[in-house]
Amino acid sequence: MEIKDQIKFYDDRWAKKSFLNSLKLRRATKIMEYFTVVKRKLKLPLTIDLGCGDGRFISFIGEFTPAEGIELSEEAVRIAQEKYPDTVFHQGNVLEFPFKQQQYDLVISQEVIEHIEDQPAYIEVAAAILKKGGYLILTTPNKKVFDHMEGGNWSQQPIEKVLTPDELKKLINAKFDIITYETIIFNFGNLGYFKWVNHRFFIGGAKKLGLENLRNTLLSKLGFGLHQCVLAKKK
Asked: For the chain, which residues score pLDDT lower than 50?
């Protein structure tokens, strides 16, 4: 799909008021956890959110550090600038935008890379605009889980290229050293061996025995979470 058609799709999408669901809240919480790690190392990291939507998340980050956002949708940027005048917003295609090289200390990418056709180029841009030793916080759906769900991917956006854990790590490792890799939000998927991993007997048994946190930790490391979360440092 051409960029102009993608812009129209996202303009229509962002023109409608939407409320955040619990899945987005849990992703945002994980990103803030990673942000806290970066903030301990860099006092005021200049931060940019790639694909910032209507700006609600990066404007919150902007309460803690200088922050900017870039978004493909013209309508989303208009809304963001109106609602959050203290945050800098750019409208454009991340892959073509004339960023200043080695400008930022932290790049945030929340549920964007799966909607990018040229994913290696996207990672290259993220690395290029970061200063030496800069950080990347990235989240994206987990194809390993989606492939074991009835109905599969429910997003239905113009481009859907969901990544497996191995695919995502390979992409990021080309330009970054991964500090933390986790998957979050469990008990999704009931096809194939996921039927047993997520069987109510094991879920309920772990809760009764007080082993739910241990189970979640194991599922996270083994890639059974609905979303993948990465904190990485530029090589």
From this structure: none
Residue 141 host element (H or E): strand 130-141
| Pair of tokens at residue 2 | 């051409």
Provide CB contacts within 8 A for 179, sequence distance 6+. 37, 231, 232, 233
- Measured distance CA(113)–CA(109) in Å, rounded: 7
State the pLDDT at residue 20: 84
Strand order in the sheet with 176-184: 88-91, 67-71, 47-50, 104-110, 130-141, 227-234, 176-184
* Number of residues in the chain: 235
- Residue 135's H or E segment, with its range, is strand 130-141
Dihedral (Cα; 24, 128, 80, 34), 10-degree rounding: 30
Residue 57, SS3 per DSSP: helix
35-to-30, 83, 217 alpha-carbon distances in Å: 9, 23, 20
Domains in the chain and their CATH numbers? 3-186+224-234 (3.40.50.150)
Residue 87 to residue 230: CA distance in whole angstroms: 25
